[in-house]
Specification:
The complex is a heterodimer of chains A (297) and B (210).
Chain A lengths: L1 E7 L3 E5 L19 H11 L7 E5 L4 E5 L2 E7 L4 E3 L2 E2 L6 E3 L4 E4 L7 E6 L3 E2 L25 E4 L10 H8 L11 E7 L8 H9 L2 E7 L3 E5 L14 E2 L4 E3 L7 E3 L6 E2 L3 E5 L4 H4 L7 E6 L6
Parallel strand pairs in A: 13-21
Antiparallel strand pairs in A: 1-4, 1-12, 2-3, 3-10, 4-9, 5-8, 5-10, 6-7, 6-9, 11-12, 13-20, 14-15, 14-21, 15-18, 16-19, 17-18, 17-20
Chain B lengths: L1 E4 L4 E5 L3 H13 L5 E6 L3 E6 L5 H9 L20 E6 L6 H8 L3 H9 L3 E6 L6 E5 L13 E4 L3 E5 L2 E4 L4 E3 L2 E5 L20 E6 L3
Parallel strand pairs in B: 5-13
Antiparallel strand pairs in B: 1-2, 2-4, 3-4, 6-7, 6-13, 7-10, 8-11, 9-10, 9-12
The chains are: A mainly beta (297), B alpha+beta (210).
């Protein structure tokens, strides 16, 4: 049996897969990798099931030691990477020998790196998922020095084939966004709670990502959005990518660990896919929202 | 029934009232729509979600042609028999008890009497795993949320907000008026189901130690 032993962690390191959809009616949110595309890519590079659990690392700082031989790949925020003290590349399979350590520095851009493990990781599942939701406490505990992550024996699950390798040959490290990140948004369900000028400001202004961010959501700063009506909205279901506007008029975008219901009006909802890129934007980064029509109107 | 856009993987169905919401839920349970991941009930809405954005058009069309049953009564007894009333022992020493009493124009004793003197139904869950929104069959305890939410409410705190009562399953921020606390564990993933207060469950609060 092989494993990864956690030696050191940065601000936050958690196990994440693609989450546990389908339990919102119990108050259990989907959770999962904040940047799912980066986790899928890391798994593809290793020939894992794309939905396999990996390690989500916020702002680097992770060091793990290989117990037995292991093969890993790093994607997402381009944290400088060493294996046994020697620089190594992201987005390729890396073989670690027994006792060798892999260490991540602080990425110059982006927020979250993903370390996938061939095998893959063997983690207890809650509601079918190994994802950690630090806010609600669902899923495995946060990684800390001493955490031992077992790796399944490479078996029939292993799907590494010529086709997979050909596809991943083209995989390039994510390049930092140049200029404002543009995200697709469908207005509603509660855009009618805002005056028309505010709805226009929402889709024409640049919004700054503030330091008030985590896996639950990101608070944005920009021109205040004013409500056109008073009173309280009864709590209703919300999804990843919902842009909720509290009384302050400064929006909050929900990410992977969003609450399942919310009581502030949601002015618009981002295209689900676009929330992956959003999860990599650092404080000070700028966003624009490009309105799109819902598919069914 | 009004459909409101909610991104590319959901549609928010807005209903006239809680009764119509229960009827929609009953209809969706009786005839699951193809492509639907789940439906998430709240006070007067049901959020209908899909895994695959291309399924949304079909789901919306199916919702539009749905005929609601005359009653949503079977929703309340989804998995729990009607007669099965869970008893939750509460120590009524919450910080907001005096304020709640003042708001309702009664004394603290009367607040406790009203809270223990009715059967509560878990209408829906949300906010956090294991948090149920409970509606009483007699009312008489409607209070506003606190104007400033508390940053930390301990696990087991029993609160009131609007027509609802609820029990905080774990320490978290929150804006409900706190009237007491219970030692009963509200959420435990080693149990099946992990939530004590699952939708459809009937509950009676008892004064602890009596």
């Amino acid at each position: 049996m092989s494993a990864l032993l956690v030696i050191r962690v940065g601000p936050l390191a958690t196990v994440q897969d693609l989450g546990r959809p389908g339990h919102a009616r119990l108050g259990v949110t989907t959770s999962g990798a904040a940047d799912r595309s980066a986790l899928r890519l890391a798994n593809r590079i290793l020939g894992n099931d794309p939905a396999a659990a990996g390690i989500e690392v916020l702002l680097g700082g992770l060091e793990v030691r290989s117990v037995g031989r292991t093969t890993v790949a790093l994607t997402g925020a381009p944290a400088p990477l060493t294996v046994a003290g020697r620089p190594a590349s992201p987005c390729v399979p890396l073989d670690l020998r027994d006792g060798e350590t892999l260490s991540l520095g602080m990425p110059p851009t982006g927020l979250r790196s993903y370390l996938a493990v061939r095998g893959p990781l063997e983690v207890a599942r809650v509601f079918g998922s190994a994802s950690t939701d630090p806010t609600s406490g669902v899923g495995p505990p946060l990684l800390e020095p001493g955490t031992l992550l077992s790796i399944s024996r490479v078996g029939s699950e292993q799907r590494c084939g010529v086709d997979d390798l050909a596809a991943t040959d083209l995989a390039a490290p994510a390049s930092p966004a140049v200029g404002d990140l543009v995200l697709r948004v469908v207005l509603g369900p509660r855009d009618d709670w805002f005056d028309p000028a505010s709805v226009a400001r929402f889709t024409t202004s640049a919004w700054e990502v503030t330091a008030d961010l985590d896996r639950v959501g990101i608070r944005l700063a920009g021109p205040p959005l004013a409500r056109s009506r008073t009173g309280e909205l009864a709590s209703e279901g919300v999804v990843r990518g919902s842009v909720q506007v509290p009384p302050s008029g400064q929006p909050l975008v929900f990410l992977a660990d969003h609450p399942t219901t919310g009581g502030y009006p949601v002015i618009g909802v981002l295209a689900d896919e676009d929330t992956d890129a959003l999860a990599q934007v650092r404080p000070g980064g700028r966003l624009r929202f490009r309105p799109t029509r819902p598919s069914w109107t | 029934m009004r459909l409101r856009p909610c991104g590319d993987r959901a549609v928010l169905v807005e209903l006239a009232d809680a009764d119509e919401r229960r009827r929609l839920e009953a209809a969706l349970r009786a005839t699951p729509l193809p492509g639907v991941l789940e439906h998430v009930p709240a006070a007067r809405t049901v959020l209908v979600t899909v895994n695959d954005p291309t399924r949304l058009v079909g789901v919306v069309a199916a919702l539009r042609s749905l005929t609601l049953p005359l009653t949503g009564a079977d929703v309340a007894t989804e998995s729990v028999p009607d007669t099965d009333v869970l008893e939750i022992p509460v120590t009524y020493d919450g910080d907001d008890l005096p304020e709640v009493a003042t708001h309702l124009g009664c004394d603290v004793r009367e607040v406790v009497t009203r809270h223990t003197g009715q059967v509560w139904l878990v209408e829906f869950a949300g906010f956090a795993p294991g948090f149920g929104y409970l509606l009483g069959d007699r009312g008489g305890l409607e209070v506003p949320r606190r104007s400033t939410p508390r940053t930390r409410i301990p696990a087991g705190a029993v609160g009131l907000a609007g027509p609802w009562s609820g029990v905080y399953p774990r320490a978290s921020p929150g804006g409900w008026q706190l009237i007491g606390r219970t030692d009963l564990e509200m959420w435990d993933t080693r149990r099946d189901p992990p939530a004590v207060l699952e939708p459809g469950r009937r509950v009676r609060f008892l004064e602890a130690g009596l």
